[in-house]
UniProtKB/TrEMBL annotation:
The gene is KLHL23. PANTHER family: LUPUS LA PROTEIN HOMOLOG (PTHR22792:SF166), LUPUS LA PROTEIN-RELATED (PTHR22792). This is Kelch like family member 23. Residues 403-415 have a biased composition (Basic residues). The keyword Nucleus applies. One of its GO terms (molecular function) is RNA binding. It comes from Sus scrofa. Its main location: nucleus.
Length: 415
C-alpha cells in the first residue's frame, strides 16, 4: 500500500492534468469555432481577402496566412494546436492538407447560391438584440449567446466613431432557432432587460420612427418659418402675444344676448381684452389677456361646470392653429378700425388752427388764430347766443339810422 503522501500527490497530479485538459478542450473549441466562422456561409462571401486567397490554390489557405487573422492570432499561433483542434471538429466543414500546413473549406460543402429565396431565409434567421453595456466585448456577447442556439454571425453595431452602441444583429442557423430565441420572455444580460426583435421587425420600426421624425422636423421647420414671419410683420407680432388666449362660443342665443352677458360671466376669472359679438348672432369669440384654457377652467369650477348665457346652453372651445390665427387677425383689424373711427371722430371737433390746421402763430385778417379745441356748449341754443346778441344790437342801431346811413353802414360791414 502506498504511503498517504504519495496518494495525495497522485490525486493532485491527476486533477492538474484534468484541469489542463479542460482548458485545452475549451481552447480547441474556440479555434474550431473561429476558423469555421471565417470559412462559413455568412462570412466567406463577404470576406474579400479570404476569397482572393482561396482562388490561388484550389481553395487551400496556408496556416501562415491564417494566424495573421486577429482573433485566431489571439487564441494561438501554434500550427499543431490548430490542426489538432480542426481534426476533432464535428462540423466537418474544414479539410487539412497532407503536410498539415494548409486548410480549406470542404468542396463537398459549397457556398449556397445567393438567390432571393436565400436572402429571405437569411432575414428570417436574423435577430436584433439591444441592452448590452457599451463596454461589452464580442467574447462577452458570445458567452451569453452560447446556450441560445447555433449562431452563425454576430454583428456588434457601432457609431461612426467605432463606439459600441449596445445592440447587435445575430444570425441563427435556422428559422426555428431564431423564433425560439425571440419568443423566449424575460431575457436579460446580467441584470439588464433586453429588447429582442426580428431584424426585419426592427427595421420596420425604425422606418416608422424615421417617418415620424421627418414629419416632426417638417412641422418644426414650418413653425420656425411662421415665427420668422411673426417677427417680420407687425400684425404677426401682435398675434404672437395672443396665441392661446382666444375662446370661441356658440349656441342658441336669444336676441337680447349682449357682450355684457359674457363680460359678467368671465370678468371675475380673467381680464377680457375684446369680445367679438353682435346682438342676434349665435356665435362669437372672447380674447383674454391670459390663456383662455385657464380662464375657462376657473369659470367652470366657479359655476360647477354649468356655463350658460341667459339660461341658454353654450359650447365653449379654445381655438388653435389656423382657425385661431384667422380669428385673431379679424379682431386686430376690428380693433384698428375702431381706433381709426375714434381718431376721425375726434378730429371733427378740433378747432381750426389746431392740430392739422393753419401755421401756428399766424394771424388771419388781423385776428389771432384760434389754438386748440373750440369751447364746448351744453345746448345748441347757447352756442348761438353770443352771436344773436351782437346781431340784435346791430339791428337796433340800424333802426335808429337814416336810410342812407344804414346803407353805408351795411356796406362797411361787408368790405
Amino acid at each position: 500500500m502506498e504511503p498517504h503522501h504519495l496518494q495525495s500527490s497522485s490525486r493532485s497530479a491527476t486533477m492538474a492534468e484534468n484541469g489542463d485538459n479542460e482548458k485545452l478542450a475549451a481552447l480547441e473549441a474556440k479555434i474550431c469555432h473561429q476558423i469555421e466562422y471565417y470559412f462559413g456561409d455568412f462570412n466567406l462571401p463577404r470576406d474579400k481577402f479570404l476569397k482572393e486567397q482561396i482562388k490561388l490554390d484550389e481553395g487551400w489557405v496556408p496556416l501562415e496566412i491564417m494566424i495573421k487573422f486577429n482573433r485566431l492570432n489571439r487564441l494561438t499561433t501554434d500550427f499543431n494546436v490548430i490542426i489538432e483542434a480542426l481534426s476533432k471538429s464535428k462540423a466537418e466543414l474544414m479539410e487539412i492538407s497532407e503536410d498539415k500546413t494548409k486548410i480549406r473549406r470542404s468542396p463537398s460543402k459549397p457556398l449556397p447560391e445567393v438567390t432571393d429565396e436565400y436572402k429571405n431565409d437569411l432575414k428570417n434567421r436574423s435577430v436584433y438584440v439591444k441592452g448590452f453595456p457599451t463596454d461589452a466585448t464580442l467574447d462577452d456577447i458570445k458567452d451569453w449567446l452560447e446556450d441560445k442556439g447555433e449562431i452563425l454571425n454576430i454583428q456588434m453595431r457601432r457609431t461612426l466613431h467605432k463606439t459600441f452602441k449596445g445592440s447587435i444583429f445575430a444570425v441563427f442557423d435556422s428559422i426555428e432557432s431564431a423564433k425560439k430565441f425571440v419568443k423566449t420572455p424575460g431575457q436579460k444580460y446580467k441584470d439588464t432587460d433586453l429588447l429582442i426583435l426580428f431584424k426585419e421587425e426592427y427595421f420596420a420600426k425604425k422606418n416608422e420612427e424615421r417617418k415620424k421624425h421627418k414629419i416632426e422636423a417638417k412641422l418644426r421647420a414650418k413653425q420656425q418659418q411662421e415665427k420668422l414671419k411673426l417677427a417680420e410683420h407687425p400684425e404677426m407680432r401682435a398675434l404672437e402675444g395672443k396665441i392661446g388666449c382666444l375662446l370661441k362660443f356658440c349656441g342658441n342665443l336669444d336676441d337680447q344676448t349682449s357682450r355684457e352677458d359674457f363680460h359678467n360671466l368671465f370678468a371675475r376669472h380673467g381680464e377680457i381684452k375684446w369680445i367679438d359679438f353682435v346682438r342676434g348672432a349665435k356665435e362669437g369669440t372672447i380674447l383674454f389677456k391670459e390663456r383662455a384654457k385657464e380662464v375657462l377652467a376657473r369659470a367652470r369650477d366657479a359655476h360647477h361646470g354649468n356655463l350658460q348665457i341667459r339660461n341658454k346652453r353654450v359650447v365653449w372651445e379654445v381655438l388653435r392653429g389656423d382657425m385661431e390665427r384667422r380669428a385673431l387677425r379679424k379682431i386686430i383689424q376690428d380693433q384698428q378700425e375702431s381706433l381709426n373711427k375714434w381718431k376721425t371722430r375726434g378730429r371733427r371737433f378740433r378747432g381750426r388752427g389746431g392740430r392739422g390746421g393753419g401755421r401756428a402763430g399766424m394771424a388771419i385778417r388781423g385776428r389771432a388764430q384760434f389754438q386748440g379745441r373750440k369751447p364746448r356748449f351744453d345746448h345748441f341754443e347757447d352756442r348761438r347766443a353770443p352771436f344773436g346778441r351782437i346781431k340784435r344790437a346791430r339791428e337796433e342801431r340800424d333802426d335808429r339810422m337814416a336810410p342812407k346811413q344804414r346803407k353805408r353802414a351795411k356796406r362797411a360791414r361787408y368790405h
